[in-house]
Amino acid sequence: MRSRSAAMALGLGLHHFLLTCFVEPLRNLYRFVQPWELPGMIDTPFEKAPSSRPAFDREMLLDQAGHDPELLQTILEVFLDEAPRQIETLKASIEGRDPGTVAEEGHSLKGAAAAAAAVTVQELAQGIEMAGKASKIEEARALFDKLELEFQRFKEEAAR
Fold first, then answer.
1. Left, alpha or beta for 33 (phi > 0: left; psi -120 to 50: alpha)?
2. What tens digit of pLDDT does each residue of 105-137 get?
3. For residue 7, is pLDDT > 70?
C-alpha cells in the first residue's frame, strides 16, 4: 500500500495542476469581472440540487489515481481524515464573521475535495469561498449547512 505522504504529494501535485490549468485563468478573469457581475454564481452554485447528483465520483478519482485502487483508497482515507478539521475551521470562521478567513478556508476545502472527487462538497466550498470574497457571510452560512449534509452523503457514497 502506498504511503500517506505519497498520497499527500499526489494531492499537492493535483492541487498544483488544478491551480495552473483552471484557477489561475479564472483569477485573471476575476480581475476584470466582479462577483456581482456573475449572476447566480453565489446565490445558486448548482444547476441541480446537490442531493440529486452523486456526491462522490469514483470514476474520476480512479482516473486521478492512475487506476490504482490502493492509491484511490489512500486518497480517500487522507481526505476523510483531514476534511472534518477543515470543515470545523470553516464553521468557526463563518461563526466569527471573518470573510477573509471564510474565503481562504473555502478555497482550501475546495482543493481537498477536488483531489478526492467529492464533487458536491467541492462546488459548495467554491460557493463559500466566493461568498467570503464578497463578504456575504449569511450566504456562506446557508451554503455551509448544505456542505455539512453533502459531506455526510459523500462519506456514505465513498464507503460503498
1. beta
2. 999 999 999 999 999 999 999 999 999 999 999
3. no
Classify residue 36: in a domain, yes or no: no
Cell digits of residue 22: 483552471
Q: What is the rounded CA–CA span in Å between residue 68 and residue 7?
A: 12
Q: How many domains does the chain have?
A: 1
Helix axes 69-95, 4-18, angle to 10 degrees: 70
Block residue for cell numbers 463578504? 135
- Asked whether residue 45 is domain-assigned, the answer is no
pLDDT band, residue 18 (cuts 50/70/90): very low
- Domain CATH number, residue 65: 1.20.120.160
- In this predicted model, which residue has the larger pLDDT, 5 or 128? 128
Residue 44 lies in a domain: no
Give the whole-angstrom CA distance, residue 59 versus residue 99.
Answer: 34
Cell of 116: 478526492
Residue 17 confidence (pLDDT) above 50: no
Residue 98 lies in a domain: yes
Q: Which domain covers residue 67, as residue numbers?
A: 4-31+56-159
